Amino acid sequence: MTEKNLLAAFKQTAFRGVGHGPRTIHALKESLSDLDDSLESDMYGKGAIIEDFQKKITQVLGKEAAVFFPSGTMAQQIALRIWCDRKGIKRVAYHPLCHLEIHEEDGLKELHQIEPILLADKNSLIRLEDVVNIGEDIACLLLELPQREIGGQLPNYEELVAISAYCREKGIKLHLDGARLFEILPYYQKTAEEICQLFDSVYVSFYKGIGGIAGAILAGDDSFLKESVVWKRRHGGDLISLYPYIVSSDHYFEQRLPNMGQYYDNAKELAGSFNQCHGVETRPVEPVSNMFHVHISSPKELVEPLLISIYESTGIGLTGNLRENDSGGCYFELSVGDQYDHIPKEGLQKVFLQLDEGLKAASSSR
Amino acid sequence: MTEKNLLAAFKQTAFRGVGHGPRTIHALKESLSDLDDSLESDMYGKGAIIEDFQKKITQVLGKEAAVFFPSGTMAQQIALRIWCDRKGIKRVAYHPLCHLEIHEEDGLKELHQIEPILLADKNSLIRLEDVVNIGEDIACLLLELPQREIGGQLPNYEELVAISAYCREKGIKLHLDGARLFEILPYYQKTAEEICQLFDSVYVSFYKGIGGIAGAILAGDDSFLKESVVWKRRHGGDLISLYPYIVSSDHYFEQRLPNMGQYYDNAKELAGSFNQCHGVETRPVEPVSNMFHVHISSPKELVEPLLISIYESTGIGLTGNLRENDSGGCYFELSVGDQYDHIPKEGLQKVFLQLDEGLKAASSSR
Questions:
Q1: Do residue B24 and residue A43 have CB atoms under 8 angstroms apart?
Q2: CA B18 to CA B270: how far, in whole Å?
């Protein structure tokens, strides 16, 4: 039973517990449908279509300026590079499961010769204590809120404030990997501006909870963003036209930002159902955003056929991608979006019933 | 009279002698209109929508493999980086007005620490003699066909063959900046494959003569492209979805590739009309693609108001961007596309009459 089969079975389900539905070109068509054909393209970062959106997000984040990038990978490497250049120290600190460390083919090291110090155990959040004990001078600390690879965990707000104050005192720039910033506002009960004021630079994504096509915003002070535009060109990201990403970012930002509280509530409900199943524990146990990880104590090769049979009998899909965890079991990631409210509630009850029974049977057969 | 006024006047013209019309979101809407809403997005370089297009262009270029990139800036830096890494020499050679040298904020040097040797005088083409006389060992020679910044000039085919043979003999990789490759095929009377077989790696663009939204293809052998995908991720170019650029590249590739001969013929006709005007000479005198530069011996501050008055009285625009040249005059670039055939011929005659008379008056008033 290969992962490909799980993905195929997942794609054939009528209802999915996660996200905003399949990624098809419908999303782009819908974003364009209300716009006039004569709307002018941006041209290498200029033009109303990009400048207006940058201005809007600048205000949402409460920063001086913001620049639209094709990707967060590009935006964040550039942010760290600028802070390193300013301090004359090519050293930063971040979590061992930071996106830059595990998903970017070492671009930060290969293109920018920046050395990262990995803070905290990979299964834990970065705490104030970790920052205080770094021991070496660094240009920048990157915090990812929520910490995606450990289920989207969050420090409490007071600790964030303390880390921010410490960094300012020590002359360490604080950068926010806010790929899922909008998704955590309901938990913190803060505005984006209130969170962002703790940070010197901020990256936000428009295709996670917002559900756009692709694209990112980097925000901070004016001179920082001016410098980032030079690096954006160097990276090959200053495209003649970024508008396909901008119009979809804007469209779904307007549509889904008000739903973040609902996604969060649904995630807590969904996690509660998982946690009642045999040998299942979500991380965090109670989600702090729309996302969480589902850890199952049974091994992947037993869980995969079970999930496939559940998908086939209920028409409801949970994930297309099951990964092994460190304790001999397996896990998957869930991000709640528009799809959750479309699932028939009786169907979902059947899913958890079958999952619970199947996992009981699996564990007793071992 | 500022350049901004010239651009504003140009944008108000009903007919334009250049390009495929204003860059508006219409182009993207048109590209999507025939596609089914359920068509799946690419996902980080995988999926039929990107793989099929890569396969198609691989065959057009007669190479082993091809990868779609968001920009040529990214694709070409990466190509040179790979060739440099393979040879263990961080030195390449290209023209002084190469895109990498003048339009990319020194990305090649800043991100890849690659040192370029500038070949030939900036107003001339790179000749075989220049290559033979480099004197230092280089990993790669980049040739841009046509050489855009000098009006889109081309060496003859025999000289290309000789440069290619020399590079192979000396173990120098030959890279083609083919941003306008499709535009030069009518002049050479060769297929893209015939041109590309002279080169080890090839970049082509989809928003020059093809008129897509943005995007580029890098082609070459399998192992080269596999390596390029790693660098694409490092640069932040491995977007979750590149399909907005891919569908428009494909749409306009199909639509406009057959028109390249017509664009070329029109460019020759248009250049002929310019060359009959007082104090005007095109570069090249006879175009070898759809593009050329128009050099005017009168200074920019006299030509700008003349062009604005011509645009206003005829409704026909030629350029929105006039630049000073080295000999006290000014010049602009023209790329012929779909728009040319829409211009009323009598209107165009009036344009050249007024231009000729205006420039005569301007030169006698000095």
A1: no
A2: 10
Q: What percent of chain B has pLDDT over 90?
A: 96
| A contacts of B71 (beta carbons < 8 Å) | 236-239
Looking at residue A4, what is its pLDDT? Answer: 61
Query: Does a structural domain hold residue A249?
Result: no
User: In chain A, which residues have their Cβ closer than 8 Å to the Cβ of B231?
Assistant: 105
**Interface size, chain A vs chain B, as Cβ–Cβ contacts under 8 Å:** 162
Residue B328 pLDDT exceeds 80: yes
With CB atoms and an 8 Å threshold, state whether B241 touches A23: yes
- Min mean pLDDT across B2-16, B214-228, B276-290 is at B2-16
> ipTM score here?
0.96
Look at B233 and A25 and tell me if their CB atoms are within 8 Å: no
Chain B residues close to A213, C-beta within 8 Å = 41, 240-241, 243-244
Residue B9: CATH number of its domain: 3.90.1150.10
The answer to whether the Cβ–Cβ distance between A234 and B111 falls below 8 Å is yes
The answer to whether residue A148 is domain-embedded is yes
Alpha helices in chain A (DSSP H): 3-11, 26-33, 48-61, 72-87, 99-102, 107-112, 128-132, 157-170, 181-188, 192-196, 222-235, 243-256, 260-275, 300-314, 345-364
Q: Which of B28, B70, B243 sits opposite A236 (nearest CB)?
A: B70
The tens digit of pLDDT for each residue in A87-131 reads 999 999 999 999 999 999 999 999 999 999 999 999 999 999 999
Domain boundary among A206, A240, A274: A240
For residue B115, the enclosing domain spans 42-240
Mean pLDDT, all residues of chain B:
96
Average pLDDT of span B27-43 = 97
Q: If you measure CA to CA, which chain B residue comes closest to A228?
A: B105
